[in-house]
Design goal:
eight-stranded parallel beta sheet; alpha/beta; ornithine cyclodeaminase, domain 1; Rossmann fold; seven-stranded mixed beta sheet
Length: about 325
């Protein structure tokens, strides 16, 4: 059995490649070539533990990820997300690979927003507003810069040091001008692309703040009672989700406006798979406001783990070959 640590995953995984394989995974899902049971979640005192599995037939990978979300971990200087991923032998069911999936989860979630941004954000988007400056905020911004030429970022986190550190670290990593701001409104008001990466139970984005043509990646809170976007934002947007069924069961950003009677299920314009396959057009003009709401799917984990394992085996084979040569 192969074990890959968090440092191994970081060494082997790049965002650009992750975006490519995640897009392929959504094509597989839409084509009916993926098996993905519903996620199960165990609610605990300080958070939740979930299990999610997928089998991508074309990529020939089957995985299960067990992950937890514990918002109070920030008090202990620990990640709010903890995760481990298992990879199975397709023929025998034996676990062949175990990998630390904290960084994998952050990158694959960033990657799906990269895919959504590629198809839904205006091509001339230059400015990003981000709310939530943790690990997930970092990979979200990284992904967006892979698909659009970003020049300016406004970063907000309720923890002052978090937004300052984020600005310092990510400006060096990405070569982009990042300005910490002291309110969510300041992060959002002039942004072409907005990222919400929080665990907030109440809206952090208001529809009245949005400029025409803005695109939002809402990837934080995914419990039925919690949301990052207010009802006005959802009502005035073209709404795309990763999976309808999952969004209608888990995403408060969708569920709560429906309960209020502000929208119906038909307000969901498309699943991401319909967009990437060309079955439905993405953005059709520069004035419409688009929202991508993600609750996270197991196919993303499977696709990215396949990429990691392939790269590991390639590098391992090269090292062994080099030893033989010498």
């Amino acid at each position: 059995m192969l074990f890959l640590s968090d440092s191994d995953v970081r060494r082997l995984l790049t965002m650009r490649e992750a975006i490519e394989v995640v897009e392929e995974a959504f094509k597989e899902l839409h084509a009916g070539k993926a098996i993905m049971p519903e996620r199960t979640t165990l609610m605990l005192k300080n958070g939740s533990i979930s299990q999610m599995s997928a089998y991508l037939k074309k990529m020939n990978i089957a995985t299960t990820k067990v992950f937890g979300i514990f918002p109070k971990n920030i008090k202990y200087n620990l990640p709010t997300t903890v995760a481990t991923l298992l990879v199975y032998d397709i023929e025998t069911g034996k676990v062949t690979v175990v990998m630390d999936a904290i960084y994998l989860t952050a990158v694959r979630t960033g990657a799906v927003s990269g895919v959504a941004t590629k198809h839904l954000a205006r091509k001339d988007s230059k400015k990003v507003g981000i709310i939530g400056c943790g690990m997930q905020g970092r990979t979200q911004l990284w992904a967006v810069t892979e698909v659009r030429e970003i020049e300016k970022v406004y970063a907000y986190d309720k923890v002052v040091n978090a937004r300052r550190t984020f600005a310092e670290e990510m400006s060096k990593k990405l070569g982009v001008d990042i300005m910490p701001v002291d309110s969510a409104q300041k992060a959002v008001k002039d942004a072409d692309i907005i990222i919400t990466a929080t665990t907030s139970a109440t809206p952090v984005v208001k529809g009245k703040w949005l400029s025409d043509g803005a695109h939002i990646n809402a990837i934080g809170s995914y419990y039925p009672h919690a949301r990052e976007l207010d009802t006005e934002t959802v009502v005035k947007s073209k709404l795309v989700v990763d999976l309808r069924k999952a969004a209608l069961e888990e995403a408060g950003d969708v569920i709560l406006p429906i309960k209020e009677g502000a929208i119906t299920e038909k307000h969901i314009y498309a699943e991401l798979g319909e967009i990437v396959t060309g079955n439905k057009p993405g953005r059709i003009n520069d004035r419409e406001i688009t929202v991508f709401k993600s609750v996270g799917l197991a196919i993303q984990d499977a696709a990215v783990s396949k990429l990691i394992i392939t790269r590991y085996l390639k590098l391992h084979y090269k090292r062994e070959t080099d030893k033989f040569k010498h």
